[in-house]
Design a protein that fits this description.
Oligomer: heterodimer
Strand content of chain B: 25-35%
CATH class of the largest domain in chain A: Mainly Alpha
Helix content of chain A: over 70%
Number of domains of chain A: 2
Shape of chain B: globular
CATH architecture of the largest domain in chain A: Orthogonal Bundle
CATH topology of the largest domain in chain B: Rossmann fold
Helix content of chain B: 25-40%
Number of helices of chain A: 17
Distance between the termini of chain B: 62 Å
CATH superfamily of the largest domain in chain B: P-loop containing nucleotide triphosphate hydrolases
Shape of chain A: globular
Structural class of chain B: alpha/beta
Largest sheet of chain B: 6 strands, mixed
Strand order of the largest sheet of chain B: 6-7-8-3-9-10
Number of domains of chain B: 2
Radius of gyration of chain A: 22 Å
Amino acid sequence: MSNPYAKLPAWAEYGLIPLINLVVAFLVAGLVVLLVGENPLKAAYHMINGAFGRGEYIGFTLYYATTFIFTGLSVAVAFHAGLFNIGSEGQAYIGGIGVALACLWLDKTMPWFIVFPVAMFGSILFGALWAFLPGWLQAKRGSHIVITTIMFNFIASSLMVYLLTRVLKPLGSMAPQTRTFAEGGQLPKLDWLLSIFGLDIGNAPFNISFLLAILAAFGVWVLIWRTKLGYEMRTMGHSPSAARYAGISEPRITIVVMMISGGLAGMMALNPIMGEQFRMQLDFVQGAGFVGIAVALMGRSHPAGIIPAAILFGMLYQGGAEIAFEMPAISRDMIVIIQGLVILFAGALENMFRPAIGRGFASFGQRFPVAAQRGA
Amino acid sequence: MNDIAIELRGIDKSFGLVHANRNINLTVRKGTIHGIIGENGAGKSTLMSILYGFYQADKGEIVVDGKVVTIKDPNAAIASGIGMVHQHFMLVENFTVLENVMLGAEDSQILNTSIAKARVELKRLEKEYALEVDPDALIEELPVGLQQRVEILKALYRRADILILDEPTGVLTPAEADHLFRILGQLKDQGKTIILITHKLREIMAITDEVSVMRRGEMVATRPTAETSVEELAELMVGRRVLLRVDKGEANPGPVKFSVKNLTVRDARGVTMVDNVSFDIRAGEIVGIAGVAGNGQSELLEAISGIRKAVSGSVDLNGTPIDMTGNADPRDLRNRGLAHVPEDRHHVGLVLKFEESENAILGYHHDKRYLNGVFLNIDAIRADAEEKIQKYDIRPPNARLRTANFSGGNQQKIVLAREMERGPDVLIIGQPTRGVDVGAIEFIHKRIIEMRDQGKAVLLVSVELDEIRALSDRILVMFAGRIVGEREPDATEGELGLLMAGVEGRKEAAE
C-alpha cells in the first residue's frame, strides 16, 4: 500500500514515459512558437532538417552530443550517490585549464596521440580538484553541495576571466584566449566514421573525443553497477541510514564521488578546446554543465539513457541554431525554453502521467491477463 | 428498528495491479465492538481508509444507518457520524487539548465564542464518557495514553457514533491498554459502535463482540467472538495451522560474551535517551529488553551497533573493550563478530530499491568472496543469495527481484539470513517480527532460538511483550532511558507492565 502506483513493465518505464514527457515538452514548446506568431510545424521541420539533413549537420549534432555525454555522466554519477552536483559547468570550465596547459606545453613537439592522453589527465585532475572543494565542504563542514557548487561556478567563471586576460593570453593579443595550438593540440575528426554511412562531415568539428565519451559512458556503467565503490554509492544514494548501518563512510563517498563527477565534467573541455577551437576561449562551456542536468534526468542517470538524451540535446542545439537562422522571429533562447520544459516534464513532473499509464496497464491486464503477465 | 450501523456491500479497490480489496461485505451491528483482524497487507487499512474517505472504492456501496452514502473525503465521513482514531496520532503537539479538539470544527473565524462553547461541550463529553483530561494541557506534555484519549474526544466532539480505532494499543503499556478497553466498553454501553483494527488476537478475544478476518484483500470469515478461538482466528488469518507457542529448551549460558558498560546516549536535541546503562549477555542466552516504544531502546541498539555515537560508555565484545564515544564503526564491530538486525528494516536494514542479492551483502560487501579486486563478483553474490533464499525459504525465490516487492516477512528473512549466516558471536535484534505475517513469525522465532542454542549471545528488543516473554531467558525493562529492573521470563504481565510504566522501577532504582 506504500506504493500506490503499480510497477510498470521496463519498456514502459524507460521508453514510454520519457517519450510521453518529451512529446508533451515539445507540444508546449510548439505553443510558445505559435505565441511568437510563427508556424510550429515549419520550426519542427527546420529543427530536424538542421540536425540531420546533411552529413555536416549530423557532425555538428554529434559534436554537441559529445559535450553533453560528459556533463550528463558527471551529473548522473553524483545522482547515484544522492548528491546533486550543479557545478559541472564550473568543473568543465576549470578542466579546460588542464587541457590548455597540456596543449601549450606539448603541441609543438608531440603528435596529438601523445598530447591527448596528457590533456585528458589534466582535464580530469583540474575538474576533480574543483569538485573536491565542495565535496570536502559538505563532508566535513556540512555546507550543502547544491549551494556550494552553484557558488563555485561563479568563482570558476571569475577565475577564468582573470587567467585568460592576464596569464594565458599571448602578449599583444586583444582576445581573451590562449594562442592557437599547433597540430599536436588538434584532435583528428571522425570523418571516416561518418563516411561509413556515406556522409560527408564537411566543416563539422565531430572528433575522436566522441569515442572517449562512449568509453566514459561504459566506464560509468561499470563503476556504478560492477564495483564495490559503486555499490556503496548507490546504497548511500538510496538510503543514507542504510549506508550508516552498513559502515559506509559518508564523508569518504561524498568526496570521492564529487571528484569522479568533477573529472567527468572536466573531460568535456577536450571536445571544444582540442576538437573545435584549438585554443581555450572565454566561456567555452556555454551552459553545457546545466544541459548535463537535463540529460541526466532524461536518461534516468543510466549511461544507456544518457547517450540518446545527449544526442537529443545535440539535435536541439544544432537544429535550434538552424531555426534561428531560417526564422528570425525565433531566437536561440527557444532552445533554452525547450530544455527547461524537458527538465520540467522529465524531472519535476515525472509522475504526472504515471498513474494514468499504470491504470491503463491495470485495465489492460484485467482484460488480457496472460499478455500483461508476460509483459511484466 | 434498524440495528445495523454500517454495511459495506461489494467493496472493491485496486491500486494499479494490486488488488487491495476484493468484493468486501461487512455488517457491523449498532452498539457493538467489531474487530477486524488480518496480517499486514491483508487490506484492513485500505478498507478503513475507504470508509473514512481517504480513498474511493472502485465498486461497491457503503450504507450508514440504512442509507447509502458517498464518502468522498474525511469531512463526509464525519458528517455521516464516522470518526477515526489513527495509529499515529493526528494532533498538534504544541496546542492544548481544547485547541486540538476544536481544530477544524470551529464555528466562525473569530474564535472567542467557539472556544467557550467548545470548553462546555468538552466538559460534558468528559463527564458523560469518563474521559478526564485537562483541557488546557499541552499535547506534548501528555503521556501517550492521554493523547489517545484526546483523539477519541476529537471524534466524539464531532458527534461520531461510529468510531474506528486503527491498532490503538501499539504504543500503550499493558495498563494503558486495559484502561483503553474499559473506555471502549463504556462507549459501547452508551450506544456507540466501535470498529477495532488490530493484529493482536488477544485483544480481539478480550473485548470484541464480533470479529471479521481478512486475508489477501478478502473478507474470509465473520464470527461471534464467543464462538471462536485464538487458534481458529490465527488459522483463518494465515490460511493454514500455525504454532502460536514457541518451543524452547533450557538455556545453557556460558561465559559473558558481550557487555555494555555505563552507556549514555543523547539524541540530536541533546535529550538523554539512554542513561548510564550497563548489562551483560552470556553465550547461549537471549536477553530481552522490554519497554514501551520511545524509552531509549532504539538509541541503545543504534549506539551498541556503532550507528550512533554515545556520550559515554563502552562495550566489551568477545573480551575486547571498545569505546563507544569515538569511532566505533559498524564495519569494525561486524568484523569482531557482532551482527545487527535493525528495528527499521525499510530504511536501515535494507535498501528497498536494490535487488535481493544486493541486500544480501549489505554491510558485508568488503568480504573478499564477494569481490574481484575492486569489482563486485556478481556470480558469487547471486550464488550466495540463492543459497540463503533456499535455506530461509524466502519467497518468491528470486535473487534478482527488487526488495520492495517482497512481503514484510520475507524482507525480514533477507535481513536475518544475512546477519545469522555469518555465524556471529553476538546478535542484536530489534523488533524481529514487526510488520511480519504470522506464518513468518513462527520461523523467525525458531531461528532466534537456534542461534541461542548454538552458543550465541542474543540481545532482543521488542515492543511486543508476548514476544519478549516467549523468547527471553532474562528480561530487562527499560523506562525513560534506564534499566529499571530485571525479571525472569515467567514474570507476570502485570509485574512487567508496572515496571514498563515506571511505577515499580522508580522504587527499585531508589533502593
